[in-house]
Write a structure and sequence with these properties.
Alpha-Beta Plaits, monooxygenase, 106 residues, 30% strand, 4-stranded antiparallel β-sheet, single chain, oxidoreductase, 36% helix, alpha+beta, AI-2_Isomerase_LsrG
Length: 106
């Protein structure tokens, strides 16, 4: 993952629920938001549903630096959540990760 010149790391994660597991995935994500917001170095952590696609969810995360993100990802609770999440989503967690690199027009 990339750190920007100001040190921030921005991640978008998108996941599609397995058929019939949409409500379960939404509840799972809802329960994970507040603890993630409270992790050291978190700037922003927002969960979204994709309009018109009730099986698709997006999390927008912004971290002070790469170390804060790595600490979040390596937290014991995150390691416990991964197997549960894999039961709810199509594909892998990594498939849904998009890294953003900001730029400003001149």
């Amino acid at each position: 993952m990339t750190t920007t010149s100001n040190g921030y790391v921005t991640v978008i994660w998108q996941a599609r629920a397995r058929t019939g597991r949409e409500a379960d995935l939404k509840a799972f994500i809802t329960a994970a938001v507040t603890p993630s917001r409270n992790d050291a170095g978190n700037i922003d952590y927002e969960a979204y549903e994709v309009e018109g696609r009730p099986d698709t969810f997006v999390i927008y995360e912004r971290w002070e630096n790469r170390e804060a993100l790595d600490s979040h990802l390596g937290a014991p609770r995150m390691q416990e959540l991964v197997p549960q999440m894999l039961e709810l989503i199509e594909g892998s967690i990594e498939d849904g990760i998009t890294l953003l690199r900001p730029f400003r027009p001149a």
